[in-house]
Amino acid sequence: MKKLAMALGLLMMLVGFSGGVARADELPMPTFTVTPASHDFGSVPVNALASADLVVTNTGVGSITIVSVKTKAPYSCGATSFTLAPGQSRRVSVAFAPRAAGQYNTTCSFLSNIPSVYVNVPLSGTGVE
Asked: How far apart are CA 47 and CA 105, in angstroms?
């Protein structure tokens, strides 16, 4: 019995069990990054198309689902929703297709299934004649 108690004590010490319950704010959170953090398409002729890839990476623990990828015209995103395992990445294509000359600024918003875990990537570009 004494050997069992010692073994159990050693096991608890190795896995870091202190006998308490971790608070929610102490637990590692699922999270993700998007690179690059912003993208400037530069000058693009009116009615032409320019595209770029953004890389979404799960940098947290556990799987995370990107439930929404949104932007506003004249930009578009090539993904709607997807799930990433820890350490996994996915490329998301973003396009700029100006219909008139002028400067266009917006964001590409990546919303996850975890409340308050999201990333906004600023996008900019200029439509030229």
From this structure: 17
Residue 34: Cβ within 10 Å count: 20
Q: Which two tokens stand for residue 10?
A: 């050693």
Cβ atoms of 63 and 86 closer than 8 Å: yes
Q: Which domains does the chain have, with CATH numbers?
A: 33-119 (2.60.40.10)
CA-based R_g, the chain, Å: 22
Give 56-105 pLDDT, tens digit per residue.
999 988 899 999 999 999 999 988 899 999 999 999 999 999 999 999 99
3-state SS class at 18: coil
Backbone angles phi, psi at 14, to 5 degrees: -65, -35
CB 126, CB 43: distance < 8 Å:
yes
CA distances, 46 to each of 59, 66, 71, 106, 108 (Å) = 38, 32, 19, 18, 21
pTM value is 0.76
